[in-house]
Amino acid sequence: MRVPGQPAYLRSAPVNSGQQESKMQSFSELSISPSLKKRLTAARFSAPTPVQAAAIPQALGGKDVIATAQTGTGKTLAFLIPVMEKLSAQEAAGIAALVLVPTRELAMQVVAQYDALRSKQAQPAALVVGGLPEGRQLDAIRRGARLVVATPGRLEDYMDRKLVSLAGVKTLVLDEADRMLDMGFLPAIRRIVSVVPKERQTLCFSATMDGAIAQLVRDYTFGSTCGSRHLKRRMARSLNCCPGY
């Protein structure tokens, strides 16, 4: 369930003077299931990176999260831990979490990280990308995958052919959102999000926050709770957006 109000604006670099830095020093401090804590320990995850320490508690609290994070900062775990915890608490069948990424390689990395941490009882994620046979991808969806990790173009293709339903999605993740826009995926993203329930949690990770990304923030995390002028001031203060935005 989405928490009403403003989303959390986070940076992988030290936060600005108006923000509080997360004091989380260990994954053991998180309010997550003991089994997930145990799997994190087994995978040798102990101390969170800055973006993980900032984003995970906010996401676990149900807030929308907007974070600037470069590749290699640990952002995958920053959204996978909240997603996995939420999936474990939900009993409904079908796709409940959707992660959109710009490339097949990144999608495969996300799925590999999920598989390394998921319990034996959890359904495997469905990988939905171009350049690979679609039979296994569709089979994973039909077998009841709760998490779909997809590139926008291939997922839109499946939607066109009515091979996938996103009506039950509770959590939407936009990973490397700036790269997806640079690659021309904005129309596909908008079409995909248009069929995802509005009552959802949105987690957005991007290396930059230029005007196009800011528009996504307005459309998919703020709704009608905040006007564009307020958003511009908020992002410029919290994320160091360029003055020309």
Name of the top-level CATH class:
Alpha Beta
Task: Enumerate the spans where pLDDT stays under 50 for 5 or more consecutive residues.
Answer: 11-21, 222-245
Percent of residues in helical segments? 40-55%
Q: What is the gyration radius calculated from CA atoms?
A: 17 Å
Could you give the count of β-strands?
A: 7
> How many DSSP helices?
10
- Domains, number: 1
The 3D shape can be described as globular
> Major sheet, described briefly?
7 strands, parallel
CATH topology: Rossmann fold
What kind of assembly state do the chains in view correspond to? single chain
In short:
The chain has one domain: 3-Layer(aba) Sandwich (Rossmann fold). Helix content is 43%, strand content 12%. β4, α5 and β5 form a beta-alpha-beta unit.
SSE blueprint and pairings:
Layout: E1 8-11, H1 34-42, H2 50-60, E2 65-68, H3 75-89, E3 97-100, H4 104-117, E4 126-128, H5 134-142, E5 147-150, H6 152-160, E6 171-175, H7 177-182, H8 186-194, E7 201-206, H9 211-222, H10 228-239
Parallel strand pairs: 1-2, 2-7, 3-5, 3-6, 4-5, 6-7
List keywords for this structure.
alpha/beta, Rossmann fold, seven-stranded parallel sheet, 10 helices, 43% helix
Verbal overview:
With 245 residues, the chain is α/β, with parallel strands linked by helices. The protein has a single domain, classed as 3-Layer(aba) Sandwich (Rossmann fold). Helices cover 43% and strands 12% of the residues. It has 10 helices and 7 strands. Strands 1-2-7-6-3-5-4 form a 7-stranded parallel β-sheet, sandwiched between helices. The two termini are 31 Å apart. 42% of the residues are buried. The C terminus is likely disordered.
